[in-house]
Design goal:
Order of helices and strands: HEEEEHEEH
Number of helices: 3
CATH architecture: 2-Layer Sandwich
Largest sheet: 6 strands, antiparallel
Helix content: 25-40%
Number of domains: 1
Number of strands: 6
CATH class: Alpha Beta
Radius of gyration: 13 Å
CATH topology: Yope Regulator, Chain: A
Structural class: alpha+beta
Shape: globular
Strand content: 15-25%
Length: about 120
């Protein structure tokens, strides 16, 4: 994995450390969008936004569930609309657990909607 020094949030470093041995995960590098992210198959599944928020990609129904439970909010990339498959977790949620769940979801690719109906980690 690339140097973790590019990460801007110490709690996200713990997520990276926990998932660093997982096959196929890459750390986003460079500049701009995705620099502080974890990817699988070239697709972002967890990141720290430019506002310092922990953001993950999950099925829309799972994001709805998490928002309803008060564990976070929908992600807005600055365009004034919520992104239905992207969730911003609060400090109280298990970042590692949600990142693992997001990894499994994104790794599924085109078949990922069926993931929500399976047992989650």
């Amino acid at each position: 994995m690339p140097n973790k020094a590019v990460l801007i949030h110490s709690r996200f470093v713990k997520v990276v450390d926990a998932l660093s041995g997982t096959k196929g995960i890459q750390l986003g590098t460079g500049k701009g969008f995705g620099v502080n992210s974890l990817k699988v198959n070239g697709r972002i599944f967890a990141m720290i936004s430019s506002r310092g928020e922990f953001v993950i990609k999950l099925p829309g129904a799972r994001v709805d569930e998490l928002v309803r439970s008060g564990r976070g909010k929908y992600f807005d990339a600055g365009r004034g609309r919520k992104m239905k498959e992207w969730f911003v977790g609060t400090k109280a949620v298990d970042w590692v657990g949600l990142a693992e769940e997001a990894y499994c979801f994104v790794k599924q690719g085109k078949n990922n909607e069926a993931f929500f109906h399976q047992a989650r980690p």
